[in-house]
Amino acid sequence: MEPILDVKELSISFTQYGRGTNQVLLPVIRDLSLTIGPGQVVAVVGSSGSGKSLLAHGILGILPYNSHMSGEINFLGQPLTQRRAEQVRGKEMVLVPQGVTYLDPLMQVGPQLRKGKKDPQTRARFRGVLDRYGLGEEVETLYPFELSGGMARRVLIATAAEAAPRLVIADEPTPGLDARAARRVLGHFRELAEGGAGVLLITHDLELALTIAHRVTVFYAGVTIEEADGADFAAGKLRHPYTRALWNALPQNGFVPIPGAQPGPGEGGEGCPLAPRCPRRRPECLGKIPYRPLDGGRVRCLYPEGGDL
Amino acid sequence: MKHRLFFTGKKLVRMVLLLLGVSLVAFLLMSASPLDPLQTNVGQAALGTMSQEQIAKLEDYWGVNDPPAQRYLGWLGDFVRGDMGTSLLYRQPVSQVIGQRLQNSLWLMAFAWVISGALGLTLGVIAGANRGKLVDKLIRGYCLLISSTPAFWLALVLLVVFGVWLGWLPIGLSVPIGVDAASVTLADRLYHAILPAITLSITGVANIALHTREKMADIMEQDYILLARARGESHRSIVLRHGLRNVALPAITLQFASISEIFGGSVLVEQVFSYPGLGQAAVNAGLGSDLPLLLGITVVSAALVFGGNLIADLLYGVVDPKIRRGVAKQ
């Protein structure tokens, strides 16, 4: 089965001005790899500031002008160049953003979704999609500030679903929603996956992600540290100490924090970003660490949990 | 509707207070002026040949010996009754002088206002939408150059080039010299207004374009632009559909706030081109200690600037759906 999206060793960095006119290259994502197959929901889980949103922007080719991307992205079996990204985005590849700020505040919902098209077919098509998400005709004449949080989220999903995409990239689609509304929103993504699309769910909420994700990639300080099956979490089959910590920090699992904080972009060297906080740190953790397969998943750790390496 | 009327009423009360304050400050500045009206307007030599009675009469005419409070209150009392007084320099009612001058200036300022607004908005949007690219650098470079150029100097340069070297345009005044006032045509007036109007426009454009560019660049970094791009909208469509729409609100503010700048610029430009407009009259009134005229011009121009801002505020209510719909719901 050909994967819909295959990302290999993706790195994204920014050019910034340091002191004076010195330009500094600031790495925000390092060596990210992930694969999404048809009908699959892959969650990328990481805390705020780990560079998750940039992953979405990088795939869609909408990174800011002062950024630099390297690595390999294949979409439907072909390399995803900037030019191809421009052709497929909004059609085969869609973004579901975080919230209402992604809608033009001065434009009514209907005309905004239709991208300026006014013909009856387009109108009918959008009417149908909005209907499917329980959004009545009156919603089309509302301005974004008149939408409730849940309505805004459904409008954004409807926008994406209308294009009949192969890949749906959802960037934090649930914050600000109560648990029930959030589960309903995630249900819409599951429907899209059941329709054969691949779904990349980017979120900080491990618990919610696990309710629908087939595969979970854990992201820490811009580095992918583990890829696991959704079922691995409940089964206790975790590989990386950070994933374990993330799991243990959930309220129902003991609410246990680990000391320290995530390093910012450009802080810390080549080695394991968790090293300063890791209970099982060894000197060699400061060197370059390979991302290797382990037990049906992948891990970037020299001394993984349950591993005998 | 009721809300909007209340809003307008509140603004008008504020305007009365503002005009009161502005006229008072103008009066105080004038009183503190070291210029002796007799020396400036009659001249040292002429004063020397006059008798004491004649000088006393002149002092009386220029109000030199009246206490300031009495002079101001006297002016205010008349003004409230609709009498702006008589200009000491022109020996005509102030309202008539202002009416005449304003007619000349209004052409000039309206032209400069429209041109600088339209051109400034266009350049600003183009530069902001293409931030960092060559076209942005060119527009920004041009605007920075123009805004660091004094308006009067620019006026002189244009006058030298187009009035003197090329001889295409008149070097000053608002009508041809030596022509009967009755036979001056509209074409003559327009012809004489071209250079001052262009000077005013050029200086106005830079300011508006730079501000618009800043706003536009901000807008281009908003989340909704990002989603529009992710949805496959072209750069052109994004700028036209979302950029222009969102830059409209700050553009309205800018456009109406620029009335004051055009006013200020016209004072200098009219001076250079000897154009008999309101700006020139203001300079004459200030230097010639013509208190009624100066106060009259101050109040009228302040009212115009305030009116401009009021229009901007009211337009906001029409353009911004948050205000429009928010009010309708209450």
Q: Which terms summarize this structure?
A:
heterodimer, A: 309 residues, alpha/beta, eight-stranded mixed beta sheet, globular, B: 330 residues, mainly alpha, 14 helices
Number of strands of chain A: 12
The largest pleated sheet of chain A is described as:
8 strands, mixed
Strand tally of chain B, please?
Answer: 0
Sketch the topology of chain A as an H/E string, one letter per element. Answer: EEEHEEHEHHHEHEHEEHHEE
Uncertain runs of chain A: none
Q: Total helix count of chain B?
A: 14
Distance between the termini of chain A: 31 Å
In percent terms, what proportion of residues of chain B is strand? under 5%
* Main sheet: strand order of chain A: 6-7-8-3-9-10-12-11
Biggest interface: chains and residue counts? A-B, 26 and 24 residues
Structural class by SSE content of chain A:
alpha/beta
For the CA atoms, what is the radius of gyration of chain B? Answer: 24 Å
Shape call of chain B: globular
Low-pLDDT windows of residues of chain B: none
Major sheet attributes of chain B? none
Strand content of chain A: 15-25%
Shape of chain A: globular
- Structural class label of chain B: mainly alpha
Helix content of chain B: over 70%
Order of helices and strands of chain B: HHHHHHHHHHHHHH
| N/C terminus separation of chain B | 11 Å
Q: Layout of SSEs?
A:
The complex is a heterodimer of chains A (309) and B (330).
Chain A: E1 5-17, E2 23-36, E3 41-45, H1 52-60, E4 67-75, E5 78-79, H2 82-88, E6 93-96, H3 109-113, H4 120-132, H5 149-162, E7 167-171, H6 179-194, E8 198-203, H7 206-212, E9 215-220, E10 223-229, H8 230-234, H9 241-248, E11 292-294, E12 297-299
Parallel strand pairs in A: 3-8, 3-9, 6-7, 7-8
Antiparallel strand pairs in A: 1-2, 1-4, 4-5, 9-10, 10-12, 11-12
Helix pairs in contact in A: 4-5, 5-6, 6-7
Chain B: H1 2-32, H2 37-41, H3 44-48, H4 52-62, H5 68-80, H6 94-129, H7 134-147, H8 151-165, H9 186-220, H10 223-230, H11 235-272, H12 278-287, H13 291-319, H14 321-329
Helix pairs in contact in B: 1-13, 6-7, 6-9, 6-11, 6-13, 7-9, 8-9, 8-11, 9-11, 10-11, 11-12, 11-13, 12-13, 13-14
